[in-house]
Amino acid sequence: MGGADSFTFARMGASDRDAAYGLFLAFLQSDLHYLDSSAAYGDGGPEALRRAMDLFIERPDLGFVWMARRGGEVVGCCVACFAISTSRGTLVAKLDDVNVRPGLEGQGIGSAMMDSLKEELRHSGVTRIDTATHFDNPGARRFYERHGFEQLREERLSCLL
Hints:
Layout: E1 8-11, H1 17-30, H2 32-41, H3 45-58, E2 63-70, E3 73-85, E4 90-100, H4 109-123, E5 126-130, H5 138-146
Parallel strand pairs: 4-5
Antiparallel strand pairs: 1-2, 2-3, 3-4
Helix pairs in contact: 1-3
């Protein structure tokens, strides 16, 4: 089991696009909780994911992919997108698609990635992170709660345009 010092973290750059794409694609095509909601999200498949990766490169003002590496290998990633909160009067971030390379779960990668992402977001002036988890995914709920997230007692909804 590697400690947090064995990982490096950074925003995705253009040279990282393919590695992030591969990790997200594996997650989005296999995560049963995501697949249960993918129609409501309007999942556009691999081409939509490619467009998203391009948008993160082209529009860093809207958000970024946060990447975890160990020994140069991408071992985890997640998405942070910016919004303005009327309740905080500041920037907040929406966190999505937190994932660790299959087979590497339980090694502290997700926790180290979350801790480093929080620091990155604080440095960017973000004062809150919002996320959601599937009702039938208690493991994800426990992960987020260990990292200070609280249940809002509200339900996330989606409307395709």
